[in-house]
Amino acid sequence: MNPYPAIARQLRQSQRVLFITGAGISADSGLPTYRGLGGLYEDTATDEGYAIEEALSGGMMAAHPEITWKYLLQIERNCRGARPNLAHEVIASLERIVPEVIVYTQNVDGLHLAAGSRHVIEIHGNLHRLSCTRCAYRTEVDTYEGLADPPLCPRCGAPIRPAVVLFGEALPTAALLAIEDALAQGVDMVFSVGTSSLFPYIVEPVVWASAEGIPTVEINPAETGVSGIVDHAIRAGAAEAMGRIWHTLLADGE
């Protein structure tokens, strides 16, 4: 059965829609998916003999920032120049049809914001925002090109770091409160797009919506832990599926 007409109809009837997104939504922008922001470190250790999760941990940043930054710079170099794809653009464009579209993303690439989405909750932070580990210095950069390893604060000389959640670190309180508030206000549809749905804080909104009878949609090439509870499980890439949803919406509006 073709799920797109029903999804389009439900979207047109919605006032508030939540999109939960993961690395898969950025795959069509050329960004590799994690395990290892995309296979960069699949089944291999770093040059220093660490697992990539250890090299990219909060503890390593504190003890040996040059090691963490070596791989942050490598990851950013592989992602540099990426632009929003059709999936990001459709989600942003839905704001013309749905009064409120909330994006709750695991991604640190900033592509939802670049596409024009206005209500974005970045639960893992944003790679382009940098802050000093000692003082109040903050800045934002388009790329890491030209940064030292590790980059040092121009004010106090301490290492700076990206405003992202490294392995072993707590999720940002402000982002957790933002998604709690969004759910408390209620939503009319929940989409899970391009995420393997491994973490409880990603799965729980889908489980909650399903239990409340709120329409749920999963877009992912592979089955996940929430595939069996959603109303519509679409086995396709994010750009393909979101493109079809958008075309169906436009056709229905004619």
From TrEMBL:
It comes from Azospira restricta. The lineage of its organism: Bacteria, Pseudomonadati, Pseudomonadota, Betaproteobacteria, Rhodocyclales. Its EC number is 2.3.1.286. The active site is at H124 (proton acceptor). Keywords: Metal-binding, NAD, Transferase, Zinc. Zn(2+) binds at C132, C135, C153, C156. SUPFAM superfamilies: DHS-like NAD/FAD-binding domain (SSF52467). The keyword Zinc applies. This is protein acetyllysine N-acetyltransferase. Residues 1-254 form the Deacetylase sirtuin-type domain.
